[in-house]
Specification:
With 261 residues, the protein is an alpha/beta fold. It has six helices and nine strands; from the N terminus they run βαββαβαβαββββαα. It has one domain: 3-Layer(aba) Sandwich (Rossmann fold). It has a nine-stranded mixed beta sheet, with helices on both faces.
Length: 261
């Protein structure tokens, strides 16, 4: 399988298996409601030795003004929950800073919509609110991309949103579904995913409400539990791999500059 390494040139993939750094990775985790954030993701990251700093609009934490102390950003949220517009505006500016400085970003659901906004893309309201499980298909670009490395080309993921994203101009479409033409995109080293790959039964109960789909979603969630955990580990693990590549590229550039002095 060919793997696409965004914005990385002149390197062989084997050179990054593995890359080891003495410094701990530090990731900014942005949550938008008290129901956001999956223990499947946070537990995996902490198990990998990642230092997580969480910011939310409903606590005393604030969006940082710069990214000098962070190796990446993960922004997650349910697009149906209430949002703090001032908080989101500051987040958009931070994501644009990440795009300009080659800091990896992973935006999930609402995080993907805010990332699209940072890339000057638009979205539209769906006629029908989508809640439940959907078969997501990787595109040719998606099958080659580092984020989905080692994953099947067709996977079932949970959705809860009433909006459809437009892929930013210049972005690569990585995944689609029958109901949603943009399930995943990549712009430079920033990824937007319309689905919740790390959903838990608690999250589904909160988000599915009292719709007829609720019980079917919960039952299918039980069937999918092992796949959900495996997909979460794979996608977040690949994202950590990308962070290592970007850090190595930055280290190589700094070393080259030092040799020129």
């Amino acid at each position: 399988m060919d793997v696409c390494f965004p914005r990385i040139s002149g390197y062989e993939p084997e050179a990054y298996l593995p890359i080891l750094f003495e410094e701990m990775k530090r990731i900014l985790f942005v949550l938008h409601s008290d129901s956001d954030g999956s223990p499947l993701a946070s537990d995996f990251m902490r198990f990998q030795g990642i230092e997580l700093e969480t910011v939310t609009p409903f606590s005393e934490s604030a969006i940082p003004k710069d990214l000098s102390n962070f190796d990446a950003i993960v922004t997650v949220g349910n697009t149906e929950t209430a949002r703090d517009d001032d908080f989101v505006e500051k987040e958009v500016e931070l994501l644009r800073q990440a795009l300009h400085t080659n800091v990896p970003v992973l935006g999930i659901a609402l995080g993907a919509r805010i990332l699209a906004q940072a890339c000057y893309a638009s979205w539209c309201k769906n006629e029908v609110r989508r809640t439940g499980w959907t078969r997501v298909l990787l595109t040719q670009e998606g099958r080659r991309d580092i984020l989905f490395y080692g994953l099947p080309s067709a996977m079932d993921f949970f959705h809860v949103h009433g909006e459809t994203l437009e892929a930013p101009h210049g972005a690569l479409l990585l995944a689609r579904s029958e109901e949603c033409p943009v399930q995943a995109f990549r712009y430079a080293n920033a990824y937007g995913l319309s689905f919740h790959m790390d959903v838990t039964p608690v999250m589904m109960r909160k988000w599915a409400g009292t719709t007829e789909e609720r019980e079917r979603s919960l039952r299918y969630g039980e069937v999918m539990a092992a796949d959900v955990a495996a997909h979460t580990r794979a996608i977040y693990g690949n994202f950590l791999w990308l962070i290592d590549i970007c850090r190595s590229e930055g280290y190589t550039k700094r070393k080259s500059r030092n040799r020129l002095v």
